[in-house]
Amino acid sequence: MRCFLIPRSLMSVAIAGLTLSASAPHLAAALPQLQEASPSVLPSRCEDLPSLMFPNTVIASVETIANGTLTQGNQNIGEHCLVKGGMNQRISQSDGKSYAIGFEMRLPKQWNGRFLHQGNGGLDGVVKTAEGAMGGGPITSALMQGFAVISSDAGHDRGLPTFAYDPQARLDYGYQAVATLTPMAKSMINQAYGRGPDRSYFAGCSNGGRHAMVAAARYADDYDGILVGAPGYRLPLAAVASIAGAKVYASIPDTDKNELSSAFTPAERRHVSQAILAKCDELDGAKDGMIQNVKACQATFSLQKDVATCDSDRDGHCLSQPQKNAIERIFNGVTTSDGKVFYSPFPYDVGISSKDHMMWEYSAPIQRDSGAVAMIFNTPPVPLEDFNIRHFNGAEFVWKANIDELVSKVYATNGEYDESAMAFMSPPSPEDLSTLRDKGGKVMVYHGVSDAIFSVQDTETWFNALDANNHGHADEFAQFYPIPGMGHCRGGQSTDQFDMLSPLVAWVEKGEKPEQVIATARGLGNEGEVNEEIPASWNAARTRPLCPYPKVAFYKGEGNIDVADSFMCERPAHAM
After folding, report:
1. How far apart are CA 146 and CA 113, in angstroms?
2. CA 107, 220, 469: angle at the middle one, nearest 5?
3. What is the pLDDT of residue 282?
4. In this predicted structure, what is the pLDDT of residue 29?
């Protein structure tokens, strides 16, 4: 069959009767439109529900949670049932420990007919409150909106990397817990309400964003909408890159490895942040302490040229040449010994001076990434006496690490661990979401430009590959929102408070494609948690439009710069 790209002006005429192959460009009108979910009321008290049952599942408790027991912002979350349990309980043949997939489900009295699977962050290991709240200082959540929500520990009950000595626990953490929990959760909803969910969603940030990306690729038949935040979808490589970055910082003369911030001090970071703003702030038409035109900034700012080089001692207002060289190595993307970038570059942004940025660059490699890389992403994991984390020295591991070997081992397998870290942690073929696309599903992705652990440029590269795979039409089922100034999942000098779940639902169920998402700063008086990094010069409730890539929020030339209506989402002249 020969397929032709039909001009958008002729779509309404040409689309009738057109059949497209899986590899051909998809047109918005050709994609199925999913029906809107219908609400229901839980027919009985939680304690009077029929015995909830599913194979290999133990229900530990079912209880009523009264209206107002949980809140979101300053609003009450309505009455709901809390169901706690576990699946696939077993004793490991590898480490002798007990494992199960622990979970909780919250079933609203007033149900909107929707199900949301909440992906959690970090190493999992904890069943977090199943509420489905996303964005900085969230003031709404899936539970508050009437979704049935599930949260799990992803197959291990402590947030420590030692679970990874058990091969099955690795796979559960990576992707299999979701496959196990999804049919159970839908069955529980059916048993409670007398019918299954009309529409199903998946949402998470950081490792939860990775879970969401994996669900979009592996479990598209089970989910209709995917909300992805700061997707560490190549988490093993990002963690190795974090360790490599720490080693680069440690190579700067006079750096104290026990106080890694001495490599690039807070004062020096503030100076560089100001230099970035001086070159890039007005590229979006407004001098407002925010860099909306991120791509133009990367082409405009030069660390070597735009930051003074110290003539003598470092005083916080200059950088030594070794500092500049090291920082450039990190922001250009750390490499293996043959000079190949194995993860991603990072963009220069105002958030380079934030506490979050410094934590991820200085503390996380030693305190977080060392254990994850050594035990979860290494095949085989490093030997550890009695599988006890107390016998592991993260600093020693980092400073002795050979980056080439660490990169190699995230792709390695052996007889006991027959899936590599990159295989069980990453979505297969993430640039091909054709199953989700062809069923009428949608995916919305957001990522902070100042995220220091998972690079927004890595997400941009993914979206460009997805777009190329869809012949330039990925935006008909997928959107990517870079959030200027925001750190990892939240915070930073940014407008990071937003509701992206509601527009996702409207897109999935009504065909209303978002043109922008309005976000708010969390200054003093905010309904949710206050963001202490908001500059005093900003209105405490500053708003901005978040624009789907490659569009950027440009100032209209008039109007209050603290109000979103003064900005419009437009494609930059240099956009690809």
Report:
1. 8
2. 145
3. 97
4. 53
Whether 317 is catalytic is: no
pLDDT digits (tens, 9 = 90+) for 522-541: 999 999 999 999 999 999 99
Residues in the chain: 576
* pTM summary value: 0.94
488 is catalytic: yes
- What CATH number has the domain bearing residue 502? 3.40.50.1820
Q: In terms of domains, do 452 and 412 share one?
A: no
Rounded distance between C-alpha atoms, residue 243 and residue 367, angstroms:
11
> Angle formed by the axes of helices 207-218 and 177-193, to 10°?
80
Domain that holds residue 98: 47-233+427-513
Examine the domain organization and report whether 180 and 131 are in the same domain.
yes
Asked if the structure places residue 533 within a domain, the reply is: no
**pLDDT digit string (tens) for 78-113?**
999 999 999 999 999 999 999 999 999 999 999 999
Query: Residue 106 pairs with which residues in a beta bridge?
Result: 82, 149
Is residue 210 situated within a structural domain? yes
Kindly state whether residues 272 and 373 are assigned to the same domain: yes
Beta bridge partner(s), residue 62: 83
- Answer yes or no: 369 catalytic: no
User: Across the strands, what pairs with 87?
Assistant: 57, 101
Q: Which of 40, 151, 200, 206 is catalytic?
A: 206
Q: Is 468 within a domain?
A: yes
Amino acid in position 234: R
Residue 25: band (very low, low, confident or very high) from pLDDT cuts 50, 70, 90: very low
User: Among residues 26, 156, 473, 488, which one is catalytic?
Assistant: 488
| Sign of the dihedral through C-alpha 196, 177, 343, 446 | positive
* Active-site pick, 451, 458, 467, 475: 451
Residue 397 near residue 330 (C-beta atoms within 8 A): no
For the chain, the domain total comes to 2
